[in-house]
């Protein structure tokens, strides 16, 4: 499983009502198929430098720019979510501010200069789990931004299915939202100018792929095939409604199938866009994961996938784990092959040079990453906020911000300092504790006998930052900021579980599907236990240490447990939580969070940062 679990949720009637209230309803209708951009000769090529091989013009250098897991972060992400770690020459590391669509667009445009053969690709999760600026409008602003910055092709990711396959088709083909309508008078959403690829996602009834399985990028005689897949385990981390009627297939088998098909069509140069990833040994974006040997510094699902994908594929652009790496993982023939990932939220982009042999129509893969030797070279680059902003993206952001402002700028609470969530370096995060407490408080309003709450870590999408993001003032939490933390609109569900089931669920954090990459649930006040990471599997959770209110949990007793609807459905491998009885369904989780902030904080008495001391971790 992945290191950074990503969790979905369908937008509730609350969000649709707000969005509909902001929308200016125009004429509905479906847009035509996405087309090529002007100046792209129908295939998306742009840029300037001509690579040569042996002085005979037999080879040309094709620049491939790539990124992944953008998640609608049009504005620079706040706090640690908007930083990358940079390894220094002396072995130390420093945090560098990065990201924002204005800077990403400028970075990509600058990188393309001097490259006549340049293609830009992504590896999924461009949308979903998005901040309010994009999420409030069903991610139409992000698709518009991707069109403007020159994206040529992307795979789907698990979050592309958050609102179901029909909404994903709308992202591709355009048209106004079926409930919220059009957001601007006389303007209809045009959809993506680039193809979304979903080679391993099929309709259960027809067996056909829900979107194109591959596309061929062409430029002046150069042809490169792109195959796009998401992780086979997408149904395990997406709400049931989002994947209803769909089947997700093995990544290796699917890529190999379509690589063979492309080869038969005479397309010998192939890139796989895979929304699945790995865990490098270091979080530094410039870490050498080929030390001491090729691919030695990375682990996780992508290593197995890379080793199983046919040598017909020349490079793998990956994502999902939100990590940064450029590695050489040998293909099944034992030859080095580049595997890349560019962190998340538009903080990095990868610049890869593919040396294309015009006679064989294939990528030359000798001398991988050996600069100046031909073959394939690649590196991650920071999307620095010190550079120039792209004026057209600035205008786009301002336009959508104006529509979102009445909702986004509303204060909902006050904090005395930063409350780390996604950026926390510990299994238990201060923000996770706060959210669990908020869900327990909401559940108690439904049933005074509620005992505890559990929150999935991947559902926490950001930090709460003390410093003002706009004119609201330091320490003020706005609706837009809380939305960024919890954008899924899951409901808060209350179920009955035995003490034994609660312990089993805690053990599932570190066993079975979650053994390789633990998913540590955030717990409400009063629930404590010891997590011993020196042990393996379910033994990491000592049942004897699990206490509620200081008393040992009783295996035979029944407890009322609050959680979001994703967990209540057994999501993320927590099958035991899906066995709860006597269910009660409350409001959506964002409302529960905002209500808690409003009730428990004020300008004169802001919330302190929780201690995050409920789980004792032994390393």
TrEMBL record:
Keywords carried by this UniProt record: Hydrolase, Nucleotide-binding, Signal
Domain Calcineurin-like phosphoesterase residues, every copy: 68-323
Region (Disordered): 33-96
Residues spanning the signal sequence: 1-30
GO MF annotation list: 5'-nucleotidase activity; nucleotide binding; UDP-sugar diphosphatase activity
Domain 5'-Nucleotidase C-terminal as annotated: residue spans: 416-576
Family listed: Belongs to the 5'-nucleotidase family.
Stated name of the protein: Bifunctional metallophosphatase/5'-nucleotidase
């Amino acid at each position: 499983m992945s290191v950074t679990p990503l969790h979905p949720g369908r937008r509730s009637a609350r969000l649709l009502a707000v969005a509909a209230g902001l929308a200016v309803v125009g004429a509905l209708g479906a847009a035509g198929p996405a087309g090529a951009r002007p100046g792209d000769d129908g295939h998306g090529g742009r840029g300037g430098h001509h690579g040569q091989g042996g002085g005979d013009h037999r080879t040309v250098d094709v620049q491939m720019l790539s990124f992944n897991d953008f998640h609608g972060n049009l504005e620079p992400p706040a706090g640690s979510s908007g930083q990358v770690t940079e390894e220094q020459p002396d072995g130390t590391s420093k945090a560098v501010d990065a990201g924002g669509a204005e800077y990403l667009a400028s970075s990509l445009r600058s990188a393309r200069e001097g490259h006549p053969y340049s293609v830009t690709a992504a590896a999924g999760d461009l949308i979903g789990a998005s901040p309010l600026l994009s999420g409030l409008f069903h991610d139409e602003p992000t698709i518009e931004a991707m069109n403007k910055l020159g994206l040529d092709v992307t795979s789907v990711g698990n979050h592309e299915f958050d609102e179901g396959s029909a909404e994903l088709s709308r992202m591709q083909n355009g048209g106004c939202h079926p409930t919220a309508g059009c957001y601007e008078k006389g303007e209809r959403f045009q959809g993506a100018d680039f193809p979304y690829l979903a080679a391993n996602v099929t309709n259960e009834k027809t067996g056909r792929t829900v979107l194109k399985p591959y596309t061929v990028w062409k430029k002046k005689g150069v042809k490169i095939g792109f195959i796009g897949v998401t992780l086979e385990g997408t149904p395990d981390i997406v709400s049931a409604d989002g994947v209803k009627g769909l089947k997700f297939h093995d990544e290796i088998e699917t890529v190999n199938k379509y690589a063979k098909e492309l080869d038969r069509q005479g397309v010998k140069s192939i890139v796989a866009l895979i929304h699945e990833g790995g865990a490098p040994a270091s979080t530094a974006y410039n870490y050498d994961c080929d030390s001491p040997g090729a691919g030695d510094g990375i682990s996780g699902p992508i290593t197995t996938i890379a080793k199983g994908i046919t040598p017909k594929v020349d490079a793998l652009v990956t994502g999902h784990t939100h990590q940064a790496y450029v590695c050489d993982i040998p293909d099944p023939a034992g030859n080095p092959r580049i595997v890349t990932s560019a962190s998340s939220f538009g903080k990095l982009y990868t610049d890869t040079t593919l040396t294309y042999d015009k006679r064989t129509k294939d990528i030359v893969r000798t001398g991988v990453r050996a600069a100046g030797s031909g073959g394939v070279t690649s590196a991650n680059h920071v999307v620095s906020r010190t550079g120039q902003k792209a004026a057209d993206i600035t205008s786009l952001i301002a336009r959508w911000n104006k529509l979102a402002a009445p909702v986004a700028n509303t204060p909902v609470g006050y904090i005395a300092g930063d409350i780390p969530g996604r950026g926390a370096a510990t299994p238990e995060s201060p923000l996770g504790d706060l959210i669990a407490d908020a869900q327990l408080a909401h559940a108690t309003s439904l049933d005074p006998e509620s005992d505890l709450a559990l929150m999935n870590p991947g559902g926490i999408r950001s930090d709460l930052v003390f410093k003002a993001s706009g004119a609201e003032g330091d320490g003020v939490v706005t609706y837009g900021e809380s939305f960024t933390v919890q954008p899924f609109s899951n409901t808060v569900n209350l179920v009955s579980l035995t003490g034994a089931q609660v312990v089993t669920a805690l053990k599932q954090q570190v066993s079975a599907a979650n053994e390789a990459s633990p998913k540590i649930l955030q717990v409400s006040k009063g629930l404590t236990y010891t997590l011993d990471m020196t042990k393996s599997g379910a033994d990491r959770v000592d049942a004897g240490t699990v206490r509620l209110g200081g008393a040992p949990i009783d295996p035979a007793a029944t407890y009322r447990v609050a959680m979001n609807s994703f967990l209540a459905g057994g999501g993320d491998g927590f099958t035991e939580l899906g066995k709860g009885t006597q269910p009660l369904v409350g409001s959506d989780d964002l409302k529960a969070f905002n209500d808690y902030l409003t009730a428990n904080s004020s300008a004169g008495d802001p919330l302190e940062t929780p201690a995050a001391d409920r789980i004792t971790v032994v390393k």
